[in-house]
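Severity: low
Component: inverse-folding endpoint
Summary: output formatting inconsistent between runs
Steps to reproduce: submit the following structure tokens with default settings.
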């Protein structure tokens, strides 16, 4: 009989046994490799003691079971109603096959933005399907791969029109039939750009006074009308016409492109994506072909690989904001890829016949309701509509709204004497009965059969004609299509994604589960607040924890991407200056070492960017900074710094930078992109920061979703709190996104992360992230120069490998990145922040075994570079240049100077579970010169194969 030996292992310790990769024994070995006696000694050598926070993060951790029990309690405080509020948000049915195989599948939600196309062919195809769907339904030939939401898409379209219109006017017409939150965001975005917003009825439009105009179709209160004459009049005056529209309505209505629209925008939410109390949902934009190179955001294009096979890629990447910096036309950095993929599969799942059937059912249900109300003597408007009507109820408005709520239905309050009703896909006979009962109608409604759409507004053209939308929709076939696409990709469920500045950490299953619960997913963002008590509790507690983590006093959860957070932070600073009579402050100092989208955000906020040099060691050049701050004087609005810097080091002079800025009356914006090196150790609000945004999709465990969703809430010191973004439902709010709490449903993921990690676990995660990065730097420093190190020879949570010396042998950073694919790895961040380098961030979640596999791969690549340098193989004939190798290389004729095994199974690669990229190296230049952004016909694949 064995003796009883107590075990100190706690299987419920999420932070140390689930989230943090290396075991205590492995950490000891790693510390030995980096030359530190303990983890605390390493942190003392890395993080300047002068900025370390005094008080530890102190809340206790929950187990996974404890978390889910807490989430169930909070979810029960939300009241799930049938929301017929409309206003851009609608009930929808997510096909279970899509919910389980896309939304709940880590192969889809843990992937990164497809900057490495060879390992992203699956989601690129799904996004190309999304673009094709949007282009077809809007009747415009080019669409992008999603924007953040409808309101920000409309604001982007306004800025695009300003750049492209022949008219030199500064006026932009906003039809009053736009959704109120869209108007609010447009007005926020217009002010810093000097755009004069003119609001009015469509018939009040004077085309000669504007560079563009935007109309809602169908309107926010349901009106539909032919916009052809408006578009023609705008074109005559050299202005552009923008239409905010609804994809489901366009299955029946004449498309914007057929009426002369230049740009169409909207949300794809009702294509199978839950409302989620505001998001995330994929906004869309499409445009005329001549405007395609001015379109913001990402565009998936078709190119060829090294063998001439069709291959997908992100087109026109030179427009990316971190490359163009202050010359960028937009600061869009996060798309909504996961949600765009869901919407695209919804269209594939239903096909054009299914979508048309859903649209017809929605419309005829609206007709049924309108007819019943009119028969009872109610005044219903408009006469022509798709899914939305308003009913004049006079002084009985409050009573009708209350009666509907008593029957489990939310209606929209319109003015003082009307209520709005928006029918959606989930509306059935029971809902209609309860709805009419709220109006005192107890007679069974006679089903509507005659459309309320004028004959001339009925759609004539075909859509979704590509074979992908006509595939056999048996669930077995759909399931296999989704699996085939996911198998073409490399996500976190296959391997480490060591992208610097992107923090690709574990997205725990327990954190993800609640977002698909109806208590969280089925809430309309404009539902009465008493129905969202659970959300209020979660958001308030998350805000309190983020305040404790950052040292700030208040947070706005509204920005729904990191770039939106940057922008919102700068607008908050501007509003503060104006309130203090310092409206002249418009200069923003940005060091070269700051995050890449900072200059674009500053430019969008109406600030003048002044670049500050870096010292040779990568730090901010303090002398240059002080000189430029002094020259700016009373015009200094802000400084934008990233801490630790994008060079991967903690700078000792950060307090000095903040002090200089404050001395000249400026405000300090600290970019939260690298917060994963600070949590529990340093509070940006305590070292001199006035405002920071946090990338919840980095540090706080929201998955990247193949290129989004993201959240970028901003924290501020108390003096800035009154100037945070306001509610988008209110005029003059300074709103930056469509919903009051942005993509509210995914805030639950970050809250769950904080609850399961506890304060101590979050701090330990930061320490281990720094250990993992220093371990990689130490192991690779003899093979690759480490570009920047701190004053004590340590890096922060990421390190930069300098591959520029290999250029003299013809080896490029691209060669190394593509060769890593053969090893089964996503490449680190390429050529940013320094051209010709690789920025590596392992995060705390990666195990020592995976990190060692990555190191093995890079050391083997270094040996292959040595073979080239010592003339044993020419670079043109090396495995580096032929990388990545595909399955075709195993069966093709072989005349290369290296073996098939070396090419296809290099050190570090798995043999049994080897990842095979579906295409060879993609030709970027060909793709940009021959821009194809919708699904090519199947014949083209046959031609490529020949």
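Observed output (run 2 of 3):
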């Amino acid at each position: 009989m064995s003796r009883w030996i107590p075990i100190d292992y706690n299987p419920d310790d999420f932070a140390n046994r689930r989230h943090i990769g290396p075991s205590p024994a492995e950490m000891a070995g790693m510390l030995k490799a980096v030359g530190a006696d303990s983890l605390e000694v390493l942190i003392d050598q890395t993080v300047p003691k002068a900025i370390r926070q005094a008080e530890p993060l102190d809340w206790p951790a929950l187990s996974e079971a404890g978390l889910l029990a807490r989430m169930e309690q909070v979810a029960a405080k939300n009241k799930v109603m049938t929301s017929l509020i409309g206003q851009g948000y609608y009930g929808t049915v997510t096909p279970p096959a899509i919910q389980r195989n896309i939304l709940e599948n880590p192969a889809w939600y843990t992937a990164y933005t497809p900057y490495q196309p060879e390992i992203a062919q699956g989601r690129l195809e799904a996004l190309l399907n999304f673009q094709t769907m949007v282009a077809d339904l809007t009747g415009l030939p080019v669409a992008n791969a999603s924007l953040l939401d409808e309101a920000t898409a409309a604001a982007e379209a306004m800025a695009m029109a300003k750049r492209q219109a022949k008219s030199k006017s500064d006026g932009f017409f906003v039809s009053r039939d736009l959704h109120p939150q869209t108007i609010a965001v447009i007005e926020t975005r217009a002010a810093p750009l000097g755009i004069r917003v003119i609001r009015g009825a469509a018939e009040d439009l004077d085309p000669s006074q504007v560079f563009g105009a935007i109309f809602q179709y169908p309107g926010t209160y349901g009106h539909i009308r032919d916009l052809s004459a408006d578009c023609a009049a705008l074109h005559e005056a050299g202005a552009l016409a923008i239409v905010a529209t609804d994809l489901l309505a366009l299955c029946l209505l004449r498309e914007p492109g057929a009426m002369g629209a230049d740009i169409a925008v909207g949300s794809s939410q009702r294509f199978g994506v839950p409302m989620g109390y505001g998001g995330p949902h994929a906004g869309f934009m499409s445009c005329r072909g001549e405007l395609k190179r001015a379109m913001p955001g990402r565009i998936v294009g078709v190119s060829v690989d090294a063998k001439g096979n069709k291959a997908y890629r992100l087109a026109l990447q030179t427009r990316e904001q971190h490359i163009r910096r202050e010359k960028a036309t937009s600061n869009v950095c996060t798309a909504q890829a996961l949600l765009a993929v869901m919407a695209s599969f919804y269209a594939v799942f239903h096909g054009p016949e299914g979508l048309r059937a859903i649209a017809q059912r929605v419309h005829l249900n609206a007709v049924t309701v309108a007819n019943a109300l009119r028969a009872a003597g109610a005044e219903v408007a408009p006469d022509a509509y798709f899914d939305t009507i308003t009913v004049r109820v006079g002084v009985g408005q409050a009573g009708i709204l209350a009666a509907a709520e008593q029957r489990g239905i939310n209606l929209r309050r319109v003015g003082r004497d009307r209520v709005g009703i928006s029918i959606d896909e989930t509306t059935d006979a029971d809902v209609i009965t309860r709805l009419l009962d709220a109006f005192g109608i107890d007679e069974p409604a006679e089903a509507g059969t005659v459309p309320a759409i004028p004959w001339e507004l009925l759609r004539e053209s075909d859509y979704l004609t590509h074979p992908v939308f006509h595939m056999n929709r048996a669930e077995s076939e759909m399931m296999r299509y989704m699996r085939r696409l996911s198998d073409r990709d490399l996500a976190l469920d296959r391997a480490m994604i060591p992208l610097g500045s992107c923090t690709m950490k574990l997205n725990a299953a327990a954190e993800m589960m609640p977002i698909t619960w109806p208590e969280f997913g089925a809430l309309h963002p404009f539902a009465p607040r008493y129905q969202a008590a659970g959300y209020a509790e979660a958001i308030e507690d998350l805000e309190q924890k983020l305040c404790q983590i950052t040292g700030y006093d208040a947070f706005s959860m509204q920005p729904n991407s990191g770039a939106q957070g940057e922008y919102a932070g700068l607008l908050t600073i501007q509003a503060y200056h104006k309130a203090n009579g310092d409206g002249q402050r418009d200069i923003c100092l940005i060091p070269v070492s700051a995050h890449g989208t900072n200059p674009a955000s500053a430019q969008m906020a109406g600030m003048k960017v002044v670049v500050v040099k870096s010292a040779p060691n990568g730090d901010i050049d303090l002398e240059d900074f002080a000189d430029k701050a002094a020259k700016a004087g009373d015009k200094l609005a802000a400084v934008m710094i990233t801490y630790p810097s994008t060079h991967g080091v903690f700078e000792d002079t950060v307090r000095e930078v903040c002090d200089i800025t404050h001395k000249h009356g400026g405000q300090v914006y600290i970019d939260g992109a690298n917060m994963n090196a600070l949590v529990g150790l340093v509070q940006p609000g305590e070292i001199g920061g006035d405002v920071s945004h946090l990338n919840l999709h980095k540090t706080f465990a929201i998955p990247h979703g193949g290129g989004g969703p993201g959240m970028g809430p901003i924290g501020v010191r108390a003096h800035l709190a009154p100037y945070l973004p306001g509610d988008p439902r209110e005029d003059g709010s300074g709103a930056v996104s469509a919903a009051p709490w942005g993509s509210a449903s995914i805030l639950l993921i970050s809250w769950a992360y904080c609850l399961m990690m506890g304060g101590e676990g979050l701090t330990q995660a930061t320490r281990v992230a720094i250990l993992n990065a220093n371990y990689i730097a130490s192991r690779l420093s003899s093979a690759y120069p480490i570009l920047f190190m701190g004053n004590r020879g340590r890096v922060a949570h990421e390190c930069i490998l300098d591959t520029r010396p290999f250029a003299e042998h013809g080896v490029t950073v691209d060669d190394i990145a593509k060769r890593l694919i053969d090893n089964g790895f996503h490449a680190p961040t390429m050529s940013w922040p320094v051209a010709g380098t690789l920025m590596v961030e392992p995060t705390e979640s990666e195990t020592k075994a995976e990190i060692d596999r990555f190191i093995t791969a890079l050391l083997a690549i270094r040996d292959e570079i040595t073979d080239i340098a010592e003339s044993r193989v020419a670079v043109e004939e090396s495995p580096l240049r032929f990388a990545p190798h595909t399955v075709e290389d195993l069966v093709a004729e072989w005349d290369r100077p290296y073996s098939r095994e070396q090419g296809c199974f290099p050190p570090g690669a798995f043999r049994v579970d080897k990842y095979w990229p579906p295409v060879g190296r993609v030709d970027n230049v060909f793709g940009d010169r021959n821009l194809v952004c919708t699904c090519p016909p199947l014949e083209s694949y046959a031609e490529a194969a020949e």
